[in-house]
Amino acid sequence: DTGVSQDPRHKITKRGQNVTFRCDPISEHNRLYWYRQTLGQGPEFLTYFQNEAQLEKSRLLSDRFSAERPKGSFSTLEIQRTEQGDSAMYLCASSQRVAPEGYTFGSGTRLTVV
Amino acid sequence: KQEVTQIPAALSVPEGENLVLNCSFTDSAIYNLQWFRQDPGKGLTSLLLIQSSQREQTSGRLNASLDKSSGRSTLYIAASQPGDSATYLCAVNGDSNYQLIWGAGTKLIIKP
Lengths: 114, 112
Description:
Chain A is mainly beta. Chain A is built from no helices and 11 strands. Chain A starts with a strand and ends with a strand. In chain B, the strands form 2 sheets. In chain B, strands 2, 4, 5, 9, 10 and 11 form a 6-stranded mixed sheet that branches. A 5-stranded antiparallel sheet of chain B has the order 1-3-8-7-6, with no helix packed on it. At the A-B interface, strand 4, strand 5, strand 9 and strand 10 of A face strand 4, strand 5 and strand 9 of B.
């Protein structure tokens, strides 16, 4: 297992378009998290899954955002009708159970909305 | 509400110096605290994880300490190298048990 993988690494899109990001967690990790990070700030929590169940969503996750983890393995984060304010680094992390060994992050997807 | 603060926001030191980065948090009810490194435009690399029952963790030239009662953690870097230049973030895993609360980071520059 090579860690947490995110795809694509970079995405440039026009305002109003839809985008989808993918995250493949470490295989034995049953928890998966999405965070968003803007320049000069720490990451902000968006949502997390335990297996296929989405257990918590931040108020940052407006109705234009949707996340899925259909089989408890990989996850997708979709943003509909993108806005310039959505430009950020989207980070995925995974952990075991209650994260006794901490969180492992992917390299992120940098989204630029023009 | 848990808040995490990192001081200083930026630090520039000559190569070879030992240095300390600080992280403070307002609620001592935490499960663990994790230090991460982030290179410009990149994701996060975990450096050290300290469980709430531990006082410190070491990895190579890095040593992280935790004082839950005072709400403080420090990351000590020995014999700094230009390759250590990056932003260092601390994150607390608090009573929600699923959400990390982050500091804004310390941007470290090691001058050759």
